[in-house]
Every structure is written in structure tokens, then in C-alpha cells.
């Protein structure tokens, strides 16, 4: 207190003001929302500009890995997109005479919170970046900006506007034949299909099939692997959504899926193919495709929905084959909760109780219908009966048809006789049927190692290991067209040698000049 009084006296004597006045309030001052939004805009625009640089490197080096990096970063950037930011980027990227400038701006201006007033955006852009419109814009940058607008419209839920925009974009891109556009084109077709599937009714999904088939033919002729694989998967999804199984089967028969396609596309293709084969009663093939889909799918939270759908369908297929899924599947954290109805279904089938099976189906009918497995589950009734017969053949050496009819709650003994005879013929049980006395007598269990079962299982494991090895070798990626650079360097070296030889022969250069080293 004494020190403060002395300071005040000195200040009054000198006639000076308090030098610390106003400074104590400065640390509590927070940056306003305008500064924060300006910094956020600058960061988003800088990230998009960096993507342009990567696309230019992809074109210059003819290397698709740079394009894949741009597409991976798009999933992060899409959360920060706004209409005003996209409009600013488009204005600063496209030259004023570019035909795409007006169309993109007209789509985004309506969604911008500032409407048609773009003066504030221009002022912000003067601070944010120094991008100048180029006279000739790369097609890769052009399609990337259109793709960003597609993603923004999808996130905003504007499906009708996005469907019209995607339709025009696909028709425009159909005439572009550049291999550096393949990855971007595949994404454009993906969102094109998603927009039309999101519209009410199935008319829009059916209407795009002609365009997808035409694009598939063009991509096949151009050897565009990414677009070809993407469109095949989209067409299978489209056919299955409207239950056109025969058309989906014809597509699989006539259109060969590229072996060098991306892993996620191969997983989705295997899933749809397994679904088709399950509906066609080819359960063994369906099981192989679904196992391949679950193994190739990424085991991360982002792909949880696909992994759950593939495992649900695979469980039903295994039950239809007469097998019981392993309990470890239902204990995985990602699958434990979604597979609870299927666990109850497996328990009912495993013990062969028809009443418990019917109760479970009725209890979880809505879940099964939403998953698209209800029709396949309705086929399990016969398998439940076969399982019950197999359990009784193991427990009893001889049992009458009447007891079988009572235990399985069948309508008559004739039905029990027919079911037992079919189970014996299919190899479900090892037993004999006495029609005159009306009973089933089980045969003695044979040694499994005396049969072909161990050999078949060993063959399946070897087949899987060889297939896994071939897929790993195929999945190895090397820099594209590296051999062209080596051939170019070798050709330039040979040309230099020829020029040196000509100079020596003409007398313009001697062997002792030093630049010519050893021919």
C-alpha cells in the first residue's frame, strides 16, 4: 500500500498517466467468431490447394498414388465444407470463361447462408489465399471440384439437386479418356448411384441402369480398372435392391470382375455374389464368397456395418448348409450386439426344436426383414427338422415314426417317413427305414478317418492358403510405368553415343577430349 501511494505521488508530480492502464484486461479478451471462421476458411482452402498440387504431380508422374491420397483426405475435408468456401475456391480456380464456373456457382449460391451477396467472401479470400485462376485448368482438378460439390450436396441431404448435378457430371465425364482420372471417375459414379438410390421410389434406381451399363462398356474398352470394378458393384447393388436376381446373375456371368481391383471393391463384390448364390440355393459357393468378403473387409469401426451384414448372411448360409457357426463369432465386440437375434436362431436350430425356432422368428421378424435375411430364414424350417432327426438318430438306436412325429410336431406319420427318407438320401443321418413296422434304425458310427472327410478338409485348407498367397502377390503395388523411364534413359544414352561417334568420324572430336568415355 505504501509503495502504491509513493508511485501515485510521483505520477501526479510528473503529470503522466498510468502506463499499466488497460493492460490487465487484455489477457481475458478472446478472439471473436469472425477471426476463428477466417482461420478455419484459410485452413480449408490451404488443404484444398494442397490437393491440387498432388493432382498435378499425379498427372506429371502418371502415378495414381497421389490421387488416392487426395481421395483419402476428402473424407476429412468434407466435414469442414461450406457453400461459401466452395464458391470461393471455384471462383479462384476456374477462369471466368470456363463453362463449369456458372453451373457450380448457381448450385452452391442457393445453399450459402449469405445468399447472392459474395462481397464478404471475396474480402475473406483476399486474406486467405493468393490463388489465381489458371487459363487452362487440369481435368483432374475440374473433376475433383465437382466431386467436392457432390459430397457437399450429399451431406446436406439435397438428393434431388445432387441427382441432377451428378447426371450432368457423368454425361460430361463420359467423353474424357485419361487414365489419371480413373480413381476420381469411380468416386463420381459411386455418388451418382447413391443420389439416385436415395430418392423415393425405385424408378430413379432403375432409370440409371442404362447409363451405368454404357459406362461399364466404355470403361472395359479403355481398361479403366477402377471405374469398371466400381460400376459392376453398383449394378449388382442396384439389381439386388429391386430383387432382379436373374439380371444380376447375367451381369456376373458376362462381365468379368477385374482381379487387380481395390480390396474394398473386391469385398463388396464377394458379398453381393454370395447373396445371389444364396438366393439361388447354391449355399456352398455363397459360403465361400461370404467368407472371402468378411476376411477382406477392413476390421475397423468405419466398416462395421458391412462386416455385420456379411456375418449375418454368412450365419444363415451356414445354417442352411447344415453347419453350426462357431460361438467365437458372436463374442466379437463389433458383432456381439447386432448378432443377438441370430444367436437365438442358431440355438433353436442347433437343438432341433421347431417351436423355439418359430418363436424366435416371430419375435425378431422385423430385424430379419430389415437385414434382408427373412426369406432365407424361412427356408430353415426343414433344416430344423433334419437337425432334430439327426439328434434322435444319435440318441436312439431305434425309434418309431410316431415318436418322431410327436417330438418334431409333424402333421402325420407319412410326413415323418418322407422327411426321414430324404435325410437318409441326403446323407444327413446314417440309418435305415423300415416301412412295414414303421421305425427308423440307426447304423453304427463309422470311423471318420476311414472316409474321405479328412482328405477333403485338408484339400480345402491347402486351397485357401494357395489362394491367399496368390492374392498377396497380386496386391503388391509398384510405381506405375517405371519401365518407361528406364527405357527413356537408355534410349537417350544410345542417342548420345551415336552423336559422339558421328563427331569422331567427322573429325570434330578426338578420342582424347575426355567427354567420350569408352565405347
Automatic annotation (TrEMBL):
Region (Disordered): 496-519
InterPro entries named among the record's database cross-references: CSN3, PCI_dom, PSMD3_C, TPR_PSMD3_N, WH_DNA-bd_sf
Comp. bias (Acidic residues): 509-519
PROSITE patterns according to UniProt: PCI
Biased composition (Basic and acidic residues): 496-508
Keyword tRNA processing: no
All copies of domain PCI, residue ranges: 267-447
Keywords, in A-Z order: Proteasome
Pfam family, any one: PCI
GO MF terms, alphabetically ordered: enzyme regulator activity
Entry superkingdom: Eukaryota
GO cellular component: proteasome regulatory particle, lid subcomplex
GO biological process, one term: proteasome-mediated ubiquitin-dependent protein catabolic process
Family (UniProt): Belongs to the proteasome subunit S3 family.
PANTHER family membership: 26S PROTEASOME NON-ATPASE REGULATORY SUBUNIT 3, 26S PROTEASOME NON-ATPASE REGULATORY SUBUNIT 3/COP9 SIGNALOSOME COMPLEX SUBUNIT 3
Name the UniProt record assigns to this protein: PCI domain-containing protein
Organism, scientific name: Arthrobotrys oligospora (strain ATCC 24927 / CBS 115.81 / DSM 1491)
